[in-house]
Automatic annotation (TrEMBL):
The keyword Translocase does not apply. It catalyses: AMP + ATP = 2 ADP. It is found in: Cytoplasm. Consists of three domains, a large central CORE domain and two small peripheral domains, NMPbind and LID, which undergo movements during catalysis. The LID domain closes over the site of phosphoryl transfer upon ATP binding. Assembling and dissambling the active center during each catalytic cycle provides an effective means to prevent ATP hydrolysis. Monomer. This is Adenylate kinase. AMP binds at residues 31, 36, 57-59, 85-88, 92, 133, 144. It comes from the Bacteria. Residues 30-59 are annotated as: NMP. Keywords: ATP-binding, Cytoplasm, Kinase, Nucleotide biosynthesis, Nucleotide-binding, Transferase. The gene is adk. It comes from Bifidobacterium oedipodis.
Length: 195
């Protein structure tokens, strides 16, 4: 199963995607995790993107697209994957389309997670205290939510037009949201969705 996990910062994409990926025995690929790992390891890429990430800005498309294309070409992606946090711009949608077309693959489903703005802010604040992410400061959070609304949320219309968005409310506790995701996916009737 090839899935995109979409939704604003703090909605629980990473948590839910990890659980779902384990359940389906497919890799969970988070561009945010890849970038953070590079920053922590002090790689060339990490040095290039650190200030952008900390300010809540997007990493340039070309760089991000290359990382995702390389990752999807790895053998463990042959039976499916969950992409979390990508695509975030219209250019990234086009780049992903091109990569998938070249390898004769298709997106089976786009899972949209939803929660109220106040709930997102509360969760990001809690995460900041637990994980200490450099980009969970108030300015970067505001910037990231604004960029999501402006650049990323409209991408859902593209996928809705293609007919494979499943929207799930993510305001419950983690396990209940996961159960709701599984139920929605089981009932969606989309070909290629195996859960
Ligand atoms: P996330 O963990 O998904 O919230 O991502 C953390 C940060 O990594 C974002 O605020 C961006 O700076 C960068 N990032 C992650 N995914 C992307 C992407 N698809 N395009 C551009 N930048 C990204």
């Amino acid at each position: 199963m090839r899935m995109l996990m979409m939704g604003p910062q703090g909605v629980g994409k990473g948590t839910q995607a990890k659980m779902l990926a384990a359940r389906c025995a497919i890799p969970h690929i988070s561009t945010g995790d890849v970038f953070r790992a590079n920053v922590s390891a002090g790689t060339e890429l990490g040095k290039q993107i650190e200030s952008l990430i900390n300010a809540g800005e997007l990493v340039p498309d070309a760089l991000t697209d290359r990382i995702v294309a390389d990752r999807l070409a790895q053998p463990d992606c042959a039976n499916g994957w969950i992409l979390d946090g990508y695509p975030r711009t219209i250019e990234q949608v086009r780049a992903l389309d091109a990569v998938l077309e070249q390898s004769d693959q298709r997106i089976d489903v786009v899972l949209e997670l939803r929660a109220d703005y106040d709930e997102l802010i509360k969760r990001i604040h809690e995460r900041a205290q637990i994980e200490g992410r450099a980009d969970d400061n108030p300015e970067a959070v505001a910037k990231r939510l604004q960029t999501y609304d402006k650049e990323t949320a409209p991408l859902l219309d593209i996928y809705r037009d293609r007919g494979f968005v499943v929207a799930v409310d993510s305001e419950d506790v983690i396990e209940d949201t996961q159960a709701s995701i599984v139920k929605h996916l089981q009932q969606c009737g989309l070909p290629g969705v195996k859960i």
